[in-house]
Amino acid sequence: MSKSTDIRILDVHYDFEEHPYRTPLKFGGVPTDRCILFNVQLRVQTRDGKEATGKGSMPLGNVWAFPPRYAPFEQSLAAMKHLAELAVSATQDCTRCAHPLELSETLEPEFLRIADELSRESGPGSLSYPIPKLCTLVTTSPIDAAIHDGFGKANGINSYNGLGEDFISADLSHFLSAQSPIGVLSEHDFTGKYLDEYTSRHPKRTMPLYHLVGALDALTDADIAHRLNDGLPETLPEWIAADGLTHLKIKLNGDDLAWDVARVLDIDKITAETQAKQGVSTWHYSADFNETCQDVEYLLAFLNRIQEENSHAFERLAYIEQPTDRDLKAHPENRMHKAAEIKPVVIDESLTDFETFLLAREQGYSGVALKACKGQSQALLMGAAAKAYNMFLAVQDLTCPGASFLHSAGLAARIPGVTAIEGNARQFCPGANDGWRDAFPTIFNMSEGTVGTQVLTAPGLGH
Predict the structure, then answer these.
(1) At what angle do helices 376-388 and 100-120 cross, to 10 degrees?
(2) Beta strands in 101-175 (DSSP E)
(3) Fewest CB within a 10 Å sphere: which of 146, 154, 194, 379?
């Protein structure tokens, strides 16, 4: 059944925007030094004739979404840009008038078809590896964001307040009805359920921010050969003191147990000394291996060593992000049940749809990392699934500056159970936040380790 609030797409415009990193950031063992934003503006019209412009923005994080082990950096980046352009054309051609979730349901298969065609093209510069589904989701996520944003603005509401039965006829069973790869149906019945039951009508007032400690980052002055002297902190104690940090995300290598354990213990020692000076007694860590562990035994050995050598550091470890390879079907031996009994183990790179969600649960993952870069529609649906299955929830970053960070922060602030948000563009790509700090000072200027998400209440996605 149609709704008067349904929207159709009238026009789409886009551009790319590049910013250098302040210092290199290592993703899955590969350093990267720049951010390329894909920005989308999309004009929509409701059934009753109201019009608005929705906006979306996201980094084309090719090192993460289409790793160099699949395609060289410049080749994967070029493929994402080409895919982005073709996806805009497909969006422009979409004639359906519907809710954003339903428009996503129409557009995503078309985007995947386009990616498949690009993957099969021959000639100079042709890809030797198919464009991964994750890469397609990341590339097209600004389009989905712009649709949700335009929907809210055209209807004069915050988009998170347009997720109930009054705005969409299809309930969650329509979107979350996949069968798992081993033939087990979802054990949760979403019939009669809508996303308004799994999201909040008002954003959380503040949220702690996870500060990234990259594998290449300086911990102390001894780690710095030449200071940047650009006015920003350059060591971990400087960052903690400047921003009042209480949450640290630690990037680990996953192929050198002694190094990984020593890195966590060094960070804990330095952090404990710094927090004592700040009068802070409680703080938290997450550990991100970016799927570099060869097997779950490595993770179990890592956790055991941390617990044996520093019980306080172990207690501060809140959760583990995707320790092993993203291809769950190809590696059924990497079952996380034992590790998840010790700490929450969160699926990240593997999560591309409800099917992989179910497979991850079967393989022992106990948490879900939601990311705006996979699309607003998918993030909302996977958040609902995770809540229904009582799983640990986190919202993760893709070094998102400006509008993309506002999008991510708004998502975290509206999903019950998410306790903190990651945001590292302020460290690695601060120039891309110029102008945004003045417009949203509580978001981009941290206070006591938190981000002031209470301001994200405007029509659309909140900003």
Answers:
(1) 110
(2) none
(3) 194
Tokens of 416: 């019950």
Axis crossing angle, helix 376-388 with helix 354-362, rounded to the nearest 10: 40
CA distances from 256 to 261, 269, 292, 307 (A): 9, 20, 10, 17
CATH 3.20.20.120 fits domain 197-455 = yes
Sheet holding 30-46, edge to edge: 7-27, 30-46, 51-59
Give the chain's residues under pLDDT 70.
28-29, 178-187
405-463 pLDDT, tens per residue? 999 999 999 999 999 999 999 999 999 999 999 999 999 999 899 999 999 999 999 99
* Sequence-distant (≥ 6) Cβ neighbours of residue 173 within 8 angstroms: 189, 190, 191, 192, 193
Per DSSP, the three-state class of 134 is: helix
Q: Are 410 and 57 in contact (CB under 8 A)?
A: no
Q: Coil, helix or strand for 186?
A: coil
Interval 92-139: pLDDT, tens: 999 999 999 999 999 999 999 999 999 999 877 789 999 999 999 999
**Domain locations in the chain as residue ranges:** 7-179, 197-455
**3-class secondary structure, 192:** coil
- What's the CA gap between 190 and 188, in Å, rounded? 6
Given its phi and psi angles, is residue 65 left (phi above 0), alpha (psi -120 to 50 degrees) or beta?
alpha
The CATH number that domain 7-179 falls under is 3.30.390.10
Fill in the amino acid letter for 20: P
